[in-house]
Amino acid sequence: MTKTNKTDIQQDDIETPNGDSIKTERYDYDGFWKDLIDRFFYPLLKRAIPELYEAADRETKPRPLDKEFTDILNTADPTIHTSPHFADYVMEVPLKNGEAEWIILHCEAQGHGGGNISERMNHYKCLIYGHYRREPVALAIITEKRPVNEPAYYSHEHYGTESVYKYNRLVLSELDDDEMIESDNPIEIVLYAAKFAMQTKEELKKFNFLRKTIELLGERGWSLSEKRDLLLFTERIVNIKDEALMVKYSEILRQYKEEGKNMYIPIALRDQADDLLARGRKEGRKEGREEGRKEGRLEVARNLLTNGIPTDIIVKSTGLPLDQIQGMMN
């Protein structure tokens, strides 16, 4: 089962104009993509490198080459050991003919930063070839917009000597929305969500997108475990921050379950919604008064009403009577 890890959220130190330092949260997109590749490696291969997908022995799991690549990086140059000089993945893919291919998987989530991707891809390839004499397959997954003039492959000419290195690229901004929605490949749902997250920051649009994703998953014949993980990956990359919308989203999933629909209810968001109520109850216990516990539920109800949440959902979320909630609307 795929889980939302605490490492998904990183903290950066930002210096304010007066010289103070404050911490801001930053989503760990690298960790997200690594988890996604672990769970849906072959579907990703089908989307990005279909020839290798057809040749692969998909009954056998690919083998991570972490140790081999660590050995390659065991040099005196300390900068090689740190991002962006460290490839996300080097995998050994078993083939149907009994042989195997090595594949470099690099996920670029740094937007306009992070240096030149083509130079890095060439660097990874040269390290592997120099150490093992292997010609790896390579895939760069471009998850953010890059500089317009950035080359799509590596080339270098020097006194009559020329090198050209081309590799597979999966560029989210270039993918067709309709094609991803209609595909029977489960990885397309998450690619669709990642493209959406790259382009949209509005919380209400995020909520509506997740609701649409639930409907898309409901139409597919994939296994419950695949739907569960796809939904959780989609939640992580879309990353709703508005607590009231999270409560509303959680209630929609609860309704699906009550209607007998085979849909996974993500524990992470459900627990966060429940925490809103628990927070109020905890403060009420500290005060030792029933009024304190009620105030916690009222605070949640006011927040939900402000965000346009329907009253029937607020009743289920807070346990408050309908007439009391309706009275708060006046």
Mean pLDDT: 78
The separation of the N and C termini measures: 45 Å
Report the sheet with the most strands, covering strand number, pairing sense and barrel closure: 5 strands, mixed
Q: Which parts are unreliable, with pLDDT below 50 for 5 consecutive residues or more?
A: 1-26
Quick recap:
This protein is an alpha/beta fold and 330 residues long. It has 14 helices and 9 strands. Helix 1 packs antiparallel against helix 9 (224-238) and helix 11 crosses helix 12 (290-306).
Word description of this protein:
The protein has helices at residues 29-39, 41-48, 50-55, 66-72, 117-132, 177-182, 187-199, 203-219, 224-238, 243-258, 267-287, 290-306, 311-318, 322-328, and strands spanning 9-15, 21-27, 63-64, 89-94, 100-108, 137-142, 154-158, 161-165, 168-171. It is of the alpha/beta class and 330 residues long. It has a domain at 26-174. The strands form three sheets. A five-stranded mixed β-sheet has the order 3-4-5-6-9. Helix 5 (117-132) links the parallel strand 5 (100-108) and strand 6 (137-142). The radius of gyration is 24 Å and the shape is elongated.
